[in-house]
Amino acid sequence: MTRRPDDNQIGRRAYSTFADRYDAAAPTKPHNALYERPASLALLGDVTGLDVVDAGCGSGICSQKLARAGAKVRAFDITPEMLELARKRCAGLDVEFHEGDLAKPLDWLAIASIDAILCSLALDYVEDLKPVFTEFHRIARAGGRLVFSMGHPMRDWGDARARGNADYFATNRWGLHWGGFGEPNPYVESYRRPLQDILNGLADAGWRLDRFVEPLPVAEMAAVDPRHFAELNRSPAFICVRAIK
Fold first, then answer.
1. What angle do CA 200, 44, 113 make, to 5 degrees?
2. Cβ neighbours of residue 162 under 8 Å, at least 6 residues apart?
3. Is the domain defined by 7-244 classed in CATH 3.40.50.150?
4. pTM of the entire predicted model
5. CA 118, CA 80: separation in Å to the nearest integer?
6. At 212, is the secondary structure helix, strand, or coil?
């Protein structure tokens, strides 16, 4: 496959086209607000008084929650349109924003300076995870925790649109028009890889796996979105992982 100069910025290309619509929908969209986000924040635990990085912060939804919970937040994202929205959402809170790329060194963050890292649904836009996990390990203090969420590898493998003729054991790039964020439906590309590459990349970077969760939706989702509530109780859409340095 011929590589394009911006192949490592597929997230930026996609989200810049519907940042405002994403920001309006994601705070209450059931898959986010009643499924992935509660699971990831529960794994992260109490952040009172901690230095926390929100990696791939998007429009600042988690940054706002973390700051209100008592954390000093250092957030970054690759998409300028998202960062503008995040700064507005977190105005007056203890959140520092930076434009940064998960696929590149986080050179504005010092060695062993961070207590906890949250990376919510952002790693699917990075082709090679090991350098990201290595950089997270560099900035984390001893005993620090990393929590991240991603698309569930087997969920996508069961979807013919994702699978096609691809090899499960390879890192595959695919795209889909997303519903739920208004018209026109945005076209979003991401990477899918085998579960072993995710967990082994984490271990190779020096992290110790502490908890692996295939989340269930919270009970409130039954009334808001009964179809997806039933579906997610049978088959997970995401994985949520906690690791310790």
1. 80
2. 156, 172, 174, 176, 192
3. yes
4. 0.94
5. 20
6. strand
